[in-house]
Amino acid sequence: MKGLTYKDAGVDIEEGNRAVxxxxxxxxxxxxxxxxxxxxDFAGLFEPDLSGYRRPVFVSGTDxxxxxxxxxxxxxxxxxxxxxxxxxxxxxxxxxxxxxxxxLDYIAGGKIEAEIVADLVKGVADGCRQAxxxxxxxxxxxxxxxxxxxxxxxxxxxxxLVDRDRIIDGSAVGPGDALVAIASSGLHSNGYSxxxxxxVPAEKLLEPTRIYVNSVLKTLEDLPDGAIHGxxxxxxxxxxxxxQRAIPDGLVARVDRSSWQVPAIFELCREKGSISWEEMFRTxxxxxxFVMVVxxxxxxxxxxxxxxxxETAWVLGEVQEADILGLDPSEGxxxxxxxxxxxxxxxxxxxxx
Length: 353
Prior knowledge:
Order of helices and strands: HEHHEHEEEHHEHEHHEHEE
Radius of gyration: 22 Å
Structural class: alpha+beta
Number of strands: 10
Number of domains: 2
CATH architecture of the largest domain: Alpha-Beta Complex
């Protein structure tokens, strides 16, 4: 009688090895100076160039793609969600002013199919090249009985570097600062649990999350030192929940709703679900992927620089003192005006009107 094998239990080691071979070129294409190891080693080694850093600080971030993966599976299109995976982490660490150095991925599924895994990793590699960081390593796990065959999940981890004296943490934000918005490329990777109930799966829903690393770091470099006081990546929780993280106590970010037109895909979601603007702004990015809080006198230059770098940017609003608006900072601004069709949600430090 032939004994049971690991393959009989649902784990195909040979298929896993084939996946590694298929992804090798994608991983190698992301290697930048500092990478000391190749695919297949137990650990990734990276030697950072610390020249120019007086007090180097490592900055880390981790995230996933969420239920956008389900759209990819339904459409059998696997080569873009890896870009989203990278974007969610590198855009987060970018808010501190850090440059991403390397990225690690984790892919798990019920049954490893080498071509699908290679496509997923291709997307990760594409995102890493866009962000200028290396795909240093990762893990692919076959977990039959835990995931259904054909289902995969992805998680990622990014590490970046910033000089301690140049960390952007929102502490310099003050009254009169301008909010400079940078457009999103669509839904990015948030709100899909709701969007999937409203929209038929389509290629438009797989538009990757925009990676802002190069344009924001170049703008930081070209503006006068200290001109950028805070930054926010607009992800889960939308504009109010994320922008408030860059606003100190006692201040309010006043967002001018008339400064931009919400893209059609968000309007379609709102109409299909009869969704209030309060819920829209708390669920989706509504066309804004990143916000920079800039010295008021440098706002026009920031918008111009971002435009030259291929971004759609504009002045979204300004920072004001909460007491000037007659607000109690401990209570936050008032909720939306029920008579208005454009009012945003109440948030401790953000007004959308």
